[in-house]
């Protein structure tokens, strides 16, 4: 007899999340202390800028007594919200200045997504997501019906993809599922591309037509880079949804933008993010829930100092973008050397989507999710981790997300191990691993 509620049992049975994390982090690679450990090429983190952030904190932060009291409220101090607004004004080029009253701070975008789920949706109502998409959105909005919209060969960052979402809305409602929102990740995780400006306008119009919310996650806004050798007709630059005169296309009650420190500011451990919204009722709802997701005053102090230091931040962003480009070129060169396909149009984020189908089976159309799961077991054996396509809600198996923003020697060794696993898969057909997968 379980001692848990039905809801508690649902969480307990959702998957061995803690076990999966510990498998990676309990034996993580270190060139000096654990060279035989697992190389993590699956976590999207800006490792090459961590030391810059750490050095800044050590040099600039002196905590005071007020930094360890209760603070001004769980929605973020006025100074923090003003700092976020100033940051968005500078880098996002909004059509109208961002007001601090339209900002609510929290312990990262994950917490904000959960609160949005409670505030905007009834259990079982639908949230439209692209596929592939960042795997944690399914967990963040766990009580909802996540509906993954297939692109059907259409460029999902173009205006042509709008019809796929319109079809998904109609099909969902025919099944009795009320679609309440569309969530866009711009720049996109895991595809590393930005949406066409005209497409963003059409998404706003679509949401207005059906009176549904548009949630735009812009957490990779400044994690963009130029690919050497690309002409002016290369990948689209990032354009924030805030840079439009949105009132022309969508009621302010339906538009919400997420941002945080985890990616652009290489501070995933700081646990600090925010939402911009002009929906006053939503602000009230989120403020009530914020008591469960209040950022530490110590984290706020660090965040405020970083956001208010214009000179340092300008140099940091420029250095980060330069290093992202360099890391990307190292990864692309190695993938080319090993004959591994990837999305060459990526120009944002810390990852490339790689195509391993030809190595897993000659007849790529016959690859199943069991083959992908079996290959993950093989990668585990070879001590390297990349994000599987199934977790990213890919349309077909065999695609993985490679996170390459690490020091070059570690990326080289990680891809060498990946190549060894691919060679073994080609030799053995992963027979042993497939048996293990099918027995579980």
Automatic annotation (TrEMBL):
GO molecular function: pyridoxal phosphate binding; transaminase activity
An annotated GO BP: amino acid metabolic process
Methyltransferase among keywords: no
Lineage per the UniProt record: Eukaryota, Fungi, Dikarya, Ascomycota, Pezizomycotina
Annotated ranges, domain Aminotransferase class I/classII large: 39-417
Record's keyword terms, sorted: Pyridoxal phosphate, Transferase
Gene3D superfamilies hit by this protein: Aspartate Aminotransferase, domain 1 (3.90.1150.10), Type I PLP-dependent aspartate aminotransferase-like (Major domain) (3.40.640.10)
Protein name per UniProt: PLP-dependent transferase
């Amino acid at each position: 007899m379980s001692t848990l509620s039905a809801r508690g049992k649902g969480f307990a049975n959702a998957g061995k999340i803690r076990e999966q994390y510990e498998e990676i982090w309990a034996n993580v690679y270190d060139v000096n202390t654990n060279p035989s450990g697992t190389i993590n090429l699956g976590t999207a983190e800006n490792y090459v800028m961590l030391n810059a952030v750490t050095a800044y904190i050590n040099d600039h932060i002196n905590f005071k007594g007020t930094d360890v009291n209760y603070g001004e409220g769980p929605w973020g101090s006025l100074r923090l919200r003003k700092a976020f607004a100033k940051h968005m004004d500078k880098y996002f080029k909004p059509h109208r200045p961002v007001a601090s009253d339209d900002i609510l701070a929290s312990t990262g975008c994950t917490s904000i997504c959960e609160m949005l789920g409670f505030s905007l949706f009834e259990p079982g109502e639908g949230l439209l997501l692209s596929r592939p998409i960042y795997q944690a959105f399914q967990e963040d909005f766990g009580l909802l019906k996540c509906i993954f919209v297939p692109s059907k060969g259409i460029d999902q960052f173009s205006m042509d993809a709008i019809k796929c979402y319109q079809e998904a809305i109609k099909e969902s409602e025919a099944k009795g599922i009320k679609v309440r929102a569309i969530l866009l990740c711009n720049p996109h995780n895991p595809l590393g591309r930005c949406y066409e400006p005209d497409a963003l306008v059409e998404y706003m119009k679509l949401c207005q037509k059906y009176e549904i919310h548009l949630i735009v996650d812009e957490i990779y806004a400044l994690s963009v880079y130029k690919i050497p050798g690309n002409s002016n007709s290369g990948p689209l630059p990032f354009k924030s949804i805030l840079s439009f005169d949105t009132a022309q296309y969508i009621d302010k009650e339906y538009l919400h933008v997420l941002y945080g420190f985890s990616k652009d500011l290489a501070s995933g451990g700081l646990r600090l993010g925010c939402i911009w919204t002009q929906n006053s009722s939503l602000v009230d709802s989120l403020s009530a829930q914020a008591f469960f997701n209040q950022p530490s005053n110590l984290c706020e102090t660090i965040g405020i100092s970083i956001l208010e230091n214009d000179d340092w931040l300008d140099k940091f962003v420029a250095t980060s973008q330069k290093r992202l480009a360099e890391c990307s070129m190292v990864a692309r060169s190695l993938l080319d050397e090993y004959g591994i396909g990837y999305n060459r149009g990526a120009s944002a984020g810390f990852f490339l989507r790689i195509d391993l189908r030809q190595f897993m089976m000659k007849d790529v159309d016959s690859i199943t999710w069991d083959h992908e799961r079996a290959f993950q077991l093989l990668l585990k054996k070879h001590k390297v981790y990349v994000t599987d396509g199934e977790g990213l809600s890919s349309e077909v198996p065999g695609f993985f997300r490679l996170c390459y923003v690490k020091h070059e020697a570690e990326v080289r060794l990680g891809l060498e191990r990946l190549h060894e696993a691919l060679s073994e898969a080609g030799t053995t057909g992963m027979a042993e691993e497939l048996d293990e997968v099918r027995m579980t």
